[in-house]
Amino acid sequence: MGAILKPRNLPQRQLRAAAVAVTRSRPAPPPAAARPRPTGTVRHGRGGRRWRRRRQQRLPVVLLAGEGGDRRGRGGRSRGWERLSCSISPVPARGSEDGLILFQQLNLITLVIFLQQETKVAEWLYFKGNKSFKKYCVSLQNKSRPHSRGEYNVYSTFQSHEPEFDYLKSLEIEEKINKIRWLPQQNAAHFLLSTNDKTIKLWKISERDKRAEGYNLKDEDGRLRDPFRITALRVPILKPMDLMVEASPRRIFANAHTYHINSISVNSDHETYLSADDLRINLWHLEITDRSFNIVDIKPANMEELTEVITAAEFHPHHCNVFVYSSSKGTIRLCDMRSSALCDRHSKFFEEPEDPSSRSFFSEIISSISDVKFSHSGRYMMTRDYLSVKVWDLNMENRPVETYQVHEYLRSKLCSLYENDCIFDKFECCWNGSDSAIMTGSYNNFFRMFDRNTRRDITLEASRESSKPRAILKPRKVCTGGKRKKDEISVDSLDFNKKILHTAWHPMENIIAVAATNNLYIFQDKIN
Questions:
Q1: Residues 96, 112: contact at Cβ < 8 Å?
Q2: Beta partners for residue 194, in sequence order
Q3: pLDDT, tens digit, for every residue of 430-443?
Q4: More confident call, 203 vs 93
């Protein structure tokens, strides 16, 4: 039985799921996709049916900033997790303080990530605005005003991508950003990669708080002076000015993916990065925009034979020649670029044998891996499927060393989850800074945290109604049957429209960020 692939989650709704007999009253899968074009080439065309393009509003990327102390948060005894300040909603508001958080929003938050920065710097926060708002008011951080603990201020706003239209395929390319990855900081400026479905951009984020005055060839208002009237030479001086944050695109990497990009990952050599779509993985050099190298290609000659797609890909944090990618069949392949230029043949293959007695119609759907993350040490990797989180040792391929059930109580609800499409939700997972704990999201605005040392787990809720700023979060429990206790919630009462798909953990401190639909919540571990 092949992998069950939902048409709306496939690239351009054109890939077909092979060898699957779905006896349901659902629309048939769309026809097979057109043949992909070679990497690094540009195709132009005049033909194709012109679709009337709906008017879309520009969705800005808003950069929030805050400064805090160098608090590691590892000493002392934990008293639980408290919410910092207040949540960040579609309108720029105030949030946490420590760490650098990055997230996107398009009617809902689609990305949350901390900057992997080990020095004490200002914290920044990106997000993409809701379509219902025409514009955002941007207030820059005033460095002269000391920050109180637990605040973010809007730092800057810029537009990352514009909506486009592919006239050859009559396909609209949204400006929604799928992934953002920070590059290691080399100077005072920050660099990041952002991508929508087709185009990757390299951005430089810099600030300027001084301006030069006293030019010889220019007046104070910027007009050129008559050289014949210049009688003396002046030495320009730098004077302070209001902080100006500049976001400028330095590179644009386009026309290399036929299908929608789902992953980008920066290599540890700081010179290259990979980008992955549903069928191919390309290797880019940061200085070269007009070509890339195709290192993985799983597209069959006959699209009727397609049984799986690539769901995520990531470079090893320390070895620049090693990367992994996961598939919709629940497998992970580790590849070594030293073995061959085209890594269609993997070096290691990670897959957990399935119990034949527990196999059902939904087995291959829930086994699809939605996220894969290497640990900071590089020894382990973590994968997230629909019901569980698994930790793999890179030296053991036959089974995971740890398995954590996230919401096993939903196994009896798979039929209804299939009907409302929730079974196709893609949950992310993350490590803490020391790789001793992991976190992932669930439904009803619940998120789960697992301690790898003590094997303890906790369920917390991110909600405006249930918590106030600085309030300690109370553990939540789900009642699966029998008499329900006062502080428990019935599995039938879970709200599947409220879900936490994106989570992030500060790399240095016990501070987490969770995206609950269209709100970002930031919590810290309260220490005695």
A1: no
A2: 180, 201
A3: 999 999 999 999 99
A4: 203
